[in-house]
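Q: I'm teaching a short session on how sequence maps to structure, and I want students to see two examples side by side rather than one. Could you give me a first protein with its sequence written out and its structure tokens following it? Keep the formatting plain so it prints cleanly on a handout.
A: Of course. Example one:
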Amino acid sequence: MYFILGSRPEANARFQLSFKYRLASPPTPETSRFYHHFYLGYTQRALWDLSDDSIPFIDTTYNPSLFWYKEKLWESAQNPFYIGLNAGIEHASNGKSGESSRSLNDIYLQPELNYTFGNGSSLRFMPRIKQYVGVSSDNPDYRDYMGIINWRLRWQQANGLSIMGSYQQGKHGRQTHQVDIAWPLKRTPLNLNGYLYAQYFNGYGETLLHYSQRSQSQFRIGLALTP
């Protein structure tokens, strides 16, 4: 969850709101069953033009999902390595009609390979593999631009710096890169909750409306509630 500001080509903002809701919780972690790991999720992303007189939203993506998630599907007390799994189905739409309408559905599988270092920092590799279903006739070639795998790698210190990089590749060498960096405000003179947040983006799909247009490389900075 973040709000960040940039200036290319002119003043703009990007923000994201996300939440997840666990449908059923076990009495204790030890009594957890398969059905205790189902969640409802919702993410909303928007790109906002701050330079125009009317300050319009360029596009907003609404992204509900239903998924199964377990952080530690396999672990060993003697091993700093553990495996998690996230799998589900999601819908994405920009809520518009006519020529500006965009929507798609996908089923995804996301294994999560985690390693905890002796200093408390952790490394997580979490590629998300997608199979598109029911793609709208308004964007039948979406896969050609965004591909079917979102490769993601995250390194995080305990109560410190967090860095995540992601990479996607479509057909004909179309590439999308994103790097997110977060630093806790508790460890600054401000001593506040949340994070100082910076993001670099270059590629396709920054908005669902303009998924087939390569975005100018962007660097934005702002605040985040969660990195």
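Q: Perfect. Now a second example for contrast.
A: Example two:
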Amino acid sequence: SFANFTVSFKPKQEFLSLPSTMTALDTSVAQVKVDQKIIPAELLEFSKKITKEFISTGRKVVEDRAKGKVRIYNSYSSSLQKLVSSTRFVADSGLLYRLPETINIPGASIEEGKIIPRYVEAVLVADQAGENYNLDKEIVLKIPGFKGGPKHDSFYAVVPNGFSGGFKGEAKVISKDDLKKSQEETSKIAYEEMKNEVSKKIPPGFQSIDGLREIQILKVVAPKENSKADQF
């Protein structure tokens, strides 16, 4: 017969401080280079655009002037015509709109003795705030400053899509808190979605290191504070 016996081992513990080692991550190599302390790496870049809609909670008395894109024509002569800022344009209804900045209308073309009108694109702004300056159809406006002279019928503005944006009264607006909340929430969604996308697209054989991951919010597009809007 054999005697039973038990052997106990007590490991010896030693604590050793290892010096920090600088290791390079190189996207141009395919294998680890121990002697040169180089580890193969791959640089991955992703981009994502997040759009989210929010409800405005602010209220404010708003006075907005209607605006419209126009083409201002010169059928008078081949000479350039300068129109200064605040030049008035009037519709047949009597509604008045103004030119917000100085422009130059190119001279008309003369072909086989005929005058071919030329134009410049610009924006006209209603003389006063209010919805009555909104027009949802194409109209033609004349310059009252030329009335009584030969230029009155030869200079005119065509508004293809009318005027819009005119308002006067209390309205819902985008508050400072609305903007802050919307930007924080949208940025958070963008960050989380980008982090998940990066994690899913790591190539086989590679390991993602949190300290080497960088997510940047490059641009936040939002309306201005106190802009009139039910949603934004």
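Q: What should students look for in example two?
A: Point them to this: The radius of gyration is 35 Å. Also worth mentioning: The chain is about 10% helix and 30% strand.
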